[in-house]
Structures
1.
Amino acid sequence: MSNSSSMPQFLLLALADRRELQLLHFWLFLAISLAALLANGLILSAVACDHHLHTPRYFFLLNLSLTDLGCICTTVPKAMHNSLWNNTTITYTGCAAQVFFFAFFMSAEFSLLTIMCYDRYVAICKPLHYGTLLGSRACAHMAAAAWATGFLSAMLHTANTFSLPLCQGNALGQFFCEIPHILKLSCSHSGYRRELGLIRVTACLIFGGFVFFVFSYVQIFRAVLRIPSQQGRHKAFSTCLPHLAVVSLFISTLFFAHLKPPSISSPSLDLIVSLMYSVVSPTLNPLIYSLRNQELKDALRKLITGCFSEAINSPSSACYVPH
């Protein structure tokens, strides 16, 4: 086809050819999506209901949970639908929407992870200035900037990608719509170069964020090692290690997916890596953050026990969490 506007649909990558494996993939995706919804939903509820968690650290964690839910809801439902109904198609409009929302949530997530790194840096390296640098208004502005950055980035990439004429067929080598795979179908060299320029700018911003992560954590670890008490060092490490683990998982899978040498590239490897940063990472993030976080564990325990107690005493009433 010579014009992208005349292309009614795209063909997504089939996860399996056998019907039994397709149904297995459906149930796996269903389990992952339910786990992600439950875990992120619990974090959202705990942070919103427990006033002890009304701090900058947990405010940004709440926003991060929203981006994780957005990533899961963008990619997984269509994959489940295709596996259940033995289908690989997605409409042109649906593909454009998927590209926009995935780019939106991924860009916003990276911005939020950068802000959370700054939060940990100020909390440990400049504790006396924490209330000044991370007041409620400053936190709201930073969160709004993260979401606005994601929206602007997604709008630019989506508008430019879907303005390109596509003449290399309509088969995408991915289980969801992603910009690099759509660009392979383009026959416009000028538009292709324009989008590559946008991708390079985005890559430079990501690399700048990566440098900021490294610099911040070098300063953080130096400050933590100067803490005289072992208990203080342990508490400081426990607040930083979950964030560091999430950042490492996010950046490593994203970099490997798009910067790996062609010699080691294969459809199965590409699929596994894409699943890591689009599905597995958003599902694991709440588990990583709650694993070593006693405050969050206490809030979740209070939330769950409060819900069960209220349900037993008055099944028709809403769940209430005592403070």
2.
Amino acid sequence: MRLSTQISWTWRQRNLELAENSLRELFPESLKVYGYLFNINRRKPHNMVVISDAWPDFNVIICKQKQQHSQDREGDFNIYSIYSRDRESLQKLLSSNGVIDWSTFTLLGGVDINHIDVVKELCAYHNIPSKTEGIMFVLMLEDLSHLKEPESTKGYQIGPLSVEHADLVNSTWKYGGNQNSYNSVRNYISNYPSWGVMDGSGRPVSWVLLYHHSALGLLYTLPEHRCKGYAKMLISIMAKQLYEMGYPVYCFVEEDNEVSYRLFTSLGFRHKPDYRAVWFQLNERVD
């Protein structure tokens, strides 16, 4: 069955499971959409609707907000996640009625850099302002041999974060600092694996979380606790746990973030040379 100009597609659970299996064979380009489906299929809380250009022989799959302007960062930024096999299929689906509201602020997260010109052309056609927010390496771990073994941290404990730590994490997050981002951090901690190094009072001094799309993120160490190997240790612990749980182990690193790039590649994370994921903004955001 193929969709024409009007999208009215409600996926059944079995289709989502089959799509997850298909997307597993299409890494790294499919990782972000795959990560969403992985969690949706395991009944994790979500506010996502999944659409495609065809089934079962799809060329494009999009995960977008079911309810825009929900009280979290994902709804605040109206984030769309896109997997596309080719430019032409992406252009056709994005041009279909009901897929994108071209009049409102939208952040397309993870568009294949080889297909981004399609989005730019559509923005020009609709005469809307747009810009590239970031270009990311998609770093994936398949070989666990470079991971760091946990070490003794005298006076400190290693363990999962709790919701009581959400305010601290939110206050240090690059995209945090407001109530909606706090709600997202709280959801990450409540529903997905997380790890931190805690001081004697139980306050985290270093941590790593998992996004809704299954990527490692929000990695941070308080300035006075840096250069102690905490980040490498926490990434390693998280990576091993995710691997055992069947998750893909991956992260996004901005092209100009040399420190994070060296950190993750030193632990065995690798990227496809000719592939980048682009975060692309449609319209101006009104706060």
3.
Amino acid sequence: MAVINETGSFRRLSLSDEETLTVKDHGPIAGNNKLPVHTVKKAAKELNETEENKQREIAELRSLIDERAKLVSDEEKKEADRVVTTFRAKPDDVMVKFLRARKYDAERAYDLMRGYVGYRLKYPEVVSSITQKEVRHSMEIGQPGVLPSRDAKGRVVMFFRFETWDPLLRPFTEIMQSFVYILEKLLESSETQINGVCIIEDFSGYTFGQVAAVSIAEYKQMIDMLQGSFPCRFKGIHCIRQPWYFAKAFSFIKPYLRAKLFERVHVYGEELEVFFNEFSRDFLPSDFGGTAPPYDGVAAANALFGPNESDSDEDTSL
């Protein structure tokens, strides 16, 4: 029997029933709520998450944090020391966040921690101070936005709409600041850590001026964010309604994409039937060709941050 509440309709499902999941079978996009039973089973099946593995790999990861700082070369010492200062005193749930992203392999989770602190050392301008009020405004106009509920697979869907972006008013690095802030907030949720995040890039209104406004170095900010720098399971990047000259911009990015991420980039153009197989029309807002109401950025921001009066200068990074 389904149990219906504000967070959705949680049914008891076997793994063979995964394809029958709906949006209502998952929790909200924010907060660390109780995991649905089918999500617990998914974590065990896909991520090797058992209580025994969890305790063993947490202990191993904590050992690696201290041990590796003593063994690294002078060139790597700054990064390794930053891992120690960032993570040594963190609670177990932070360890679990990185372990989930690497299927409970402590060695790989440690490398991800290095990537996390390395990103901050390499791109201080991206992780510099930005207020929740500024990020809320970004979400309201879809630069980037977050759909207010999970999709049928339990994934959070972020998106970016080019037709609303004026690079003269808002440089690309400011867009990246919002991406990073929002992502950190989303990853506070265990359900997001397990089910992952998808990104939809809507290229309606994409201009030559926007192509020229993003430098190779700024493309690198984005690519490095997506691979090896965040404890996030990026499940796909979906590009829709792109014009022919999108290929020029993509040619700048392609050399930096690792094989795994490259395989998860999906380009549809105006032919969206396959896209609608990935994201059902009844889930998608009408802005993306779906049958749900248009994207409500205020509601999405409220879902992630709470009501407007709670806006603060909260730092979401670890």
